[in-house]
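Lab manual, section 2.4: Encoding a predicted structure.

Procedure: take the sequence of the chain (273 residues), apply the prediction step described in section 2.3, and record the output as structure tokens. A sample record is shown.
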Amino acid sequence: MSAPSSAYLMGHTDRERRRLAFQATILKPLTESFFVRAGLASGMKVLDLGCGVGDVAMIAANLVGPGGHVTGIDMDAAALRIARARAAEARLRIHFEHGKVENHHAQEPYDAIVGRHILIHTPDPFAVLAQAAAQVCPGGIVAFQEYDLSRYFPATPAKPLWEKAMQLKVDFFRRVTHADIGVRLLQMFSDVGLRNVQSRAEILLGGGPDCEYYDWMVEGLRSILPMLDAAEVVAAKELALETLPERLKQEALTVGGYVTSPFIVSTSGFRRK
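Recorded output:
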């Protein structure tokens, strides 16, 4: 695997921002329930690392309420402009800050530091996690939700087209990111000194004519298309992305059963008092 660069792998384009917002609508229930289990509550001061267009920060802001405060940090200035507008429209108290997550140093400790799908893209995820653990107050919460894209759970009954698309994604992420970061989180949280570490791996199942996962799959493939190596480009061309969502849907409707998301791993722990 090549180490990820400090730039966001998927790029800073309007299309990618729309993809992230679309993905966020699918993941919102998982992230909300995870934050509740982790202990986010009214009145807390929270930092969201790699906040993008603000979806995770907005979940946190709703949980901490008007007596709490959320800060989101991201290196994509255009995404932050969108996030600020969305937060203002929702009347949520969120401060958005432009910068790299690795360079953020708290003036005062936070009650909780959270992130979703950020460590998989950072050059040194352990350093980012250790920094987060050091910047929460004693008893404070660290909570990260990450993919494990080093493997996938097969659709049932078998769906060859879906599995070709998923395998292309897995091959790419194995090559250029910390694809297995999700299943590494439990040990990493312990290694940075967090206690009462809890970790849960989940997959989403979908199917039927109105399932959003067909478009979700293809939009993700579009985002990585410019970075595929020669063999992966051939595989992508064979999939014919322009018509792929409809063909994935027809495959699923023909054989029945479900298609699957990547593994999503939610891990939280507390700083020692």
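Check your result against the sample. The chain has a mean pLDDT of 94.
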